[in-house]
Amino acid sequence: MVTAALITLALLYPQPVQDPNKPPPGTAPSYATSDLPSVEDPRLVHTLWIRLAASEEPQKCPRKPWLFPFVTAGYGRTDTTQSGSKVRFRVFSQYRNETLDNDPAVWATRLLLRLWDMNYQRLGIDNPEKYRRAVDVFLCAEGEPGGEQMFVNADLGTPDKPAMTDMNAVFIYQVQTITEPREFVREVAHEFGHASLPQIGPFKGPESWANGDVGERIYIKWLVDAMHAKKLVPADVAKANVTELEHYLVDRVDPLVKSTAASGPDLALLAKDSESAYNAYVALATYAHTVLPPAVMGRAFRITAGNRGTDFAAAIVDACAERQELQFTVPAVVGKKPLWLPLGKGTLVTGSVIERKGGWAKVAPTGAIVKVKNPQPKT
């Protein structure tokens, strides 16, 4: 919870969440809050803070002459201490729906908090420290439909007290035209991938950086799994139903998993900057996420030494080699067919090796799990 008096400073500088003061008798509250226990660790409670009344000093858009009189903030907690809760998201909007359950800014902030929570707990990836661990989102009524993420320098102060600040900013244009919940979830997940995951690129197309396409595939799979486990409700995913999101996985995730499992990473293609290389990297990262333990996937992201797909492919092998014992998950869509795994110098405990190339091995599995033992690291 946060006090109304502290909110201006809290939005500029991450602060611990505190209990709110009660408004004077007869005064309508100026904000609302909602607690969201972590999907991974219910002891960690995140907070949604919603400004109800339009601000007399609207936030200026960093890119266009647009004003945003409403803000919804997401406070994410990394530990149980008071200092563990900080602003992770500020979602600026140009209107507030009378029904908060149907408000796009509330939807976006709640969804982003859920994605951030799983990003942090599963992959060990927080929002970038350079931008105070905060991502600033602008829900715009104008502009070309779609979204974009960029790092900008913007004024987060007031007319009397300018405050130029580096921002990790997301812009979603013509937000009112996104009427399908699944598309809303996909757009937000895509831009959060750009804002949070390591950059691979630049590519010649379809986008300069591929982390958005990777992010939406990883995140929507997480959302579907959490909904099946009854850990999330429709309000966490902009009221999308699980069947809609499953259709996304069938269309955009399963084909990439099947193709990469069958052929392995194309290292020569991954070294390039073409549109085909972009697609190959997205396929590799999507596949790696389905077979690796989450902590190993996060480690691979963090130790990727460069911006090419080959750097990530090598990091996957290195991250796996750090574990003396490791288990790969055989994706359900692969079934009993052979699949390529980042075996490195490891030895199979279950299954058999058919062939090897570039730190990867084509493996014939004997079940849903492939167990590996790695050699002891040299001292």
Name a few traits of the molecule:
three-stranded antiparallel beta sheet, 10 helices, 15 strands, seven-stranded mixed beta sheet, elongated, 379 residues, disordered N terminus, alpha+beta
CA(first)-CA(last) distance: 49 Å
Low-confidence stretches: 1-25
How would the global form be characterised?
elongated
Report Rg: 22 Å
The residue fraction in helices comes out at: 25-40%
The spatial strand order of the largest sheet comes to 1-2-5-6-7-9-8
Order of helices and strands: HEEEEEEHEEEHHHHHHHHEEEEEE
- Name the beta content range: 15-25%
Mean pLDDT: 91
Briefly note the structural class of the backbone: alpha+beta
Count every beta strand, where a strand is a DSSP E run of 2 or more residues: 15
Total helical segments: 10
Question: What does this 3D model show about the protein?
Answer:
By secondary structure, the protein is an alpha+beta fold. It has a domain at 7-252. It contains ten helices and 15 strands. Strands 1-2-5-6-7-9-8 form a seven-stranded mixed β-sheet. Helix 3 (181-196) crosses helix 4 and helix 4 packs parallel to helix 8. It is elongated. Residues 1-25 have low confidence and may be disordered.
Q: Can I get a quick summary?
A:
With 379 residues, the chain is of the alpha+beta class.
Helices and strands, with pairings:
Blueprint: H1 7-12, E1 31-37, E2 45-51, E3 59-60, E4 67-68, E5 70-77, E6 85-93, H2 104-123, E7 135-139, E8 146-155, E9 164-173, H3 181-196, H4 211-228, H5 242-252, H6 254-263, H7 267-270, H8 275-291, H9 294-303, H10 309-321, E10 325-329, E11 339-341, E12 347-348, E13 352-357, E14 360-364, E15 369-373
Parallel strand pairs: 6-7, 7-9
Antiparallel strand pairs: 1-2, 2-5, 3-4, 5-6, 8-9, 10-15, 11-14, 12-15, 13-14
Helix pairs in contact: 2-3, 3-4, 4-5, 4-8, 6-8, 8-10, 9-10
